[in-house]
Amino acid sequence: GENVEQHPSTLSVQEGDSAVIKCTYSDSASNYFPWYKQELGKGPQLIIDIRSNVGEKKDQRIAVTLNKTAKHFSLHITETQPEDSAVYFCAACRSSASKIIFGSGTRLSIRP
Amino acid sequence: DGGITQSPKYLFRKEGQNVTLSCEQNLNHDAMYWYRQDPGQGLRLIYYSQIVNDFQKGDIAEGYSVSREKKESFPLTVTSAQKNPTAFYLCASRAGTGMNTEAFFGQGTRLTVV
Description:
The complex is a heterodimer.
Chain A: E1 4-7, E2 10-14, E3 19-25, E4 32-38, E5 45-51, E6 56-59, E7 62-67, E8 72-77, E9 86-92, E10 101-102, E11 106-111
Parallel strand pairs in A: 2-11
Antiparallel strand pairs in A: 1-3, 3-8, 4-5, 4-9, 6-7, 7-8, 9-10, 9-11
Chain B: E1 4-7, E2 10-13, E3 19-25, E4 31-37, E5 43-51, E6 54-57, E7 64-66, E8 76-78, E9 87-94, E10 104-105, E11 109-113
Parallel strand pairs in B: 2-11
Antiparallel strand pairs in B: 1-3, 3-8, 4-5, 4-9, 5-6, 7-8, 9-10, 9-11
C-alpha cells in the first residue's frame, strides 16, 4: 500500500545551523508533497509544499526539494532559531480529494 | 473568521461507552479527514470523506464510525469496540476539487478512557 518513510525521527541542531529532514514515498502517482509543523498540543500547520512539476521551492529560511525519479523529497531549514523546535511531518497525496499519507514525524530540537 | 473547529478539546470516557467527537468547517471544503495520533507517533488515517454522503475507511477504521450528512460536518464516533481509544484525534479538511491543495487541521481532541 501507499507509504511515506521519514528520517530522522529526532534531530538536534545548534541554533544557527541547518536542519535537513528526508522523506521517501511509494506511490508513484503522488503529485503533491506538503510539510507540516506541529507544536505541542496543537494541530499541524502547513509550512511549505511542492508539486510534482517543480524540483525545488523556497520560502525565506525554508526550502523543499523533490526528486520524482527517486521518489524522495527533503525539507531544509537554514539559520535555525529556537522557535523552529517542533515536530515536522512530510506527506504525499495523489489528488485534491484523496487520502493524505503522512510520514512518522521528526522531532526537531534547537540547542541554544 | 474561517476555519476548522474541533470540540471538545478534552474528553473523558468510561470503558464501554461510545463517544462522539465533533468537527466543523466553514471553509466550503469537500474533503474531510480524521487522524489519530499517539504520543510520539505520526498521524494515522481513520476515515476520510471526499464528498457529502460518502466516506472511506482509512488504515485504522476498526472501532470507529463516521457520518457526512452535511458538507461542513464530519463527526467521529469512538465505539466500545475500539480497545485502546486513548489518543489525540485530529480532524482536517481541504478543497477536494481542482488543484491539489493543503489540508487545514483543527486543534485536536484529546480523548482519555478512565
